[in-house]
């Protein structure tokens, strides 16, 4: 059981490994828009997009920013100005895993792993709708609900006709009585 906990702890820290910032580099998680503007291919609009998508685990995640593709990302990394700070190296992670002996610390870390995993699974996705996607078989069940409005309109028309018939019958009975 302890080995499983240690393995989970190790995997948690491994997921956060990347280069740290050196003096003169720009931390993309904390830099202002003006500082980000110094990075190649990053203008004011792209800087705002980077700020909106923070935090990043590594510089390679900049390809999630619209307008930064593989080529621009390669240029950014080769420039060497962008970085992500406060991350653990392989040696630091191994040392942390080897020093874990307190089960409560392991349980706290496992809770953090579960929270981080659930957050990663709930990433927002952009949905692009096209006429073909809307008319797909997958969406046909959803569109069947719109038939309720037609059924309601039909029921209302039938009810209206019944009320007119009743009114006519009442009028005829009154004429017979008079």
Describe, in plain words, how this protein is organized in 3D.
The protein has 178 residues and is mainly α. It folds into two domains: 2-121, DNA polymerase, domain 1 (Orthogonal Bundle); 131-177. The chain is built from nine helices and two strands. Strands 1-2 form a two-stranded parallel sheet. Helix 1 packs across helix 6.
Write the layout of secondary structure elements.
Elements: H1 2-14, E1 26-27, H2 33-36, H3 44-52, H4 70-79, E2 82-83, H5 90-99, H6 103-121, H7 131-134, H8 137-144, H9 147-177
Parallel strand pairs: 1-2
The CATH class of the largest domain, by name, is Mainly Alpha
Radius of gyration: 32 Å
User: CATH H-level name of the largest domain... which superfamily?
Assistant: Photosystem II 12 kDa extrinsic protein
Shape descriptor:
rod-shaped
SSE class: mainly alpha
Low-confidence stretches: none
Strand content: under 5%
Query: Main sheet?
Result: 2 strands, parallel
* Strands, total number: 2
Q: Gap between N and C termini, in Å?
A: 96 Å
Q: What is the string of helix and strand elements?
A: HEHHHEHHHHH
CATH topology of the largest domain: DNA polymerase, domain 1
Number of domains: 2
**Mean pLDDT level:** 75
Question: What's this model, at a glance?
Answer:
61% of the residues lie in helices and 2% in strands. It is built from nine helices and two strands. Helix 1 packs antiparallel against helix 5 (90-99) and helix 1 (2-14) packs across helix 6 (103-121).
